[in-house]
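Response to reviewer comment R2.3. The reviewers asked that we include at least one raw input/output pair. We reproduce the pair for ADP ribosyltransferase domain-containing protein here without editing.
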Amino acid sequence: MVVPTSSASESLCSNDILSWKFPKALGCYTLIGRSRADDATSLFIPELDILFDCGCLVTATRPLHIFITHTHLDHCLDITRLWSKSRIPQVYLPISAVQPVKDYIRKCQVLTMVKEIDPDPAQWVPSHELIGVKPDDLFDFRKTMKIRVFEMDYSVPCCGYGFYERRQKLKKEYEHLSSKDIGKMKQENKNLELGEERIVPLFVFMGDTTVSIFNRYENEVFQFPLIIVECSYIDSILHKEPASEGKHIIWNSTVCGREKETDLHPLLLADPNSSLNKLSQPQISYTAKEEMITKLKEYYHDNEPELRQVEEFDQAYSSEDVIRWYVRPFIFRPITQALRMQDAGQIHAYRFLINDLRLMILQEYEQIKDFVEHLTVYRSGQFSNDEFEQMKNNIGNTITKNEFWSTTRSREIALMFAKSCDPTSGRKSVLFEITFDAKSSAVIADISRRSDYPDESEMLFDLGTTFEIQSIHLEEASNLWIIKLKTN
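Raw output as returned:
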């Protein structure tokens, strides 16, 4: 799961402090704070008493442990305000930054004391314990954790911090034994060591970097179920130069060929375990709903019937009914358009419903995943000649659908839609035959019982599902091109 922090392209108030609960599987932790590129980043986990960067104050509590990624002021400006005589914080930071930060703290104290020159160093009362770290350091934290330091790809020395939980596990050679056998072995040899310590990845805080870091540490970073990274810009067509010069991440590129080098969004879609594929998203605030309502009203500004439906949605919506609302055209149309165009600004505006829909798809998927190994579903479609030839040329390759992909269990229903296409349009009508493999990374949900159209036997694939193009042939009986896909 990846939690991108907010971009420089957004305009939000300076006191916009949010909180988010970790998934239960990762522990009962809360992430509190804010991150605005080129403004201030500071994230607090109260349960662990740790603060990541301190570009601003996000809590009245003075944390005991502070982890600084780098020395730009939007990440360390308020470090001098996070200490007390009775509670000197431990500050972890790149080893090359120790002396500059020490000098900064002292100069700030001189200003506070209204002194013209530094006092004798012997008179200084320690305010922070500065601990320099370097890439690949691995050290104990508390009694139950370890921390690994990662080198980030940034314009100044910058470190990421990976947190691991230390757990006692049965040694692998004993895992096949029953509890009775293990008990017997303990009785026979009280000094026998049956367990061993293993470290389990929990989360990693990466601060500022480029997407190259995901390739450099691919085997390590993607073991973390939660990755926190700052995504500074929305679109490279607008921010190509500052992103390149400052070594910042871009969310989604509109410049063909650059996305693999710079962009976070395609990287997440390619990872089947990312938050854009399986895991739940952060809780969405009331403000997000208001943003979506505003966007819908702009979209339908001159359409009174649709505006009445938007008003109904505003008054009556509940997350339990998200599928019933999503399949209604006035919701489905603008969201699908935004997803197909990969318009990050539009997608952000509709995040309120997108988040609820993904959670519901996952919830419904959990109901069937243990009972279905393979499933065949169908979908009609139309292609221009060029699009069709491109599809044929990619047999054996994969395609990723950056939208919620609607299918049906009924071949007859899909055929009916395919045959209803205008034969004079010059476009080729096709029928997709899609094999869902439970061993793949795909997530699919039977939404028929939650939809206003249960007779359509609709199955909905989650955002970012990847398919392998297996074959394409013309079916004489229906005079339709059959495109066979399989979830990847």
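The first helix runs from residue 73 to 76. The domain at 370-487 is CATH 3.90.176.10 (Toxin ADP-ribosyltransferase; Chain A, domain 1). Further pairs are available on request from the corresponding author.
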